[in-house]
Amino acid sequence: QVQLVDSGGGLVQAGGSLRLSCAASGSIYGFVRLGWHRQAPGKQRELVAFITAGGTTNYVDFAKGRFTISRDRAKNTVYLQMNSLRPEDTAVYYCSAALKNYGPFDYWGQGTQVTVSS
């Protein structure tokens, strides 16, 4: 049973940066996708970015150019580097992993709070 543990959230001012980390209890080689989602108060959880097993990265529009998803297979860890943060980025951020192509994300971290003040 794989566990994902998020960390790195916090309170930052607009324009600041944070790097979120997600440590997996086991190898991440078996996942076809590793991703980050977020959920703001009163809103549904939404995709932020994901990276495929082949290393291809994908970003939603609000993240493009500001956020970078990466992985370190040796450390079984996925990261989300967030720069130029805006108040609207305030949300709980969740790392995620999928075992199957064309399937949903199967595993989730507990979430880490990111708060961006103006």
Overall description:
- The structure is a single chain.
- This protein has no helices and eleven strands.
- The chain is globular and about 40 Å long.
- Strands 2, 4, 5, 6, 9, 10 and 11 form a seven-stranded mixed β-sheet that branches.
- The chain has about 120 residues and is mainly β.
- The protein has strands spanning about 5, 10-15, 20-25, 35-40, 45-50, 55-60, 65-70, 75-80, 90-100, 105-110, 110-115.
- Strand 9 (about 90-100) and strand 10 (about 105-110) form a beta hairpin.
Structure characteristics:
118 residues, mainly beta, 7-stranded mixed sheet, 4-stranded antiparallel sheet, 11 strands, 51% strand, globular
Secondary structure layout plus pairing:
Layout lengths: L3 E4 L2 E4 L4 E7 L8 E7 L6 E7 L4 E3 L7 E6 L4 E6 L8 E8 L8 E2 L3 E6 L1
Parallel strand pairs: 2-11
Antiparallel strand pairs: 1-3, 3-8, 4-5, 4-9, 5-6, 7-8, 9-10, 9-11
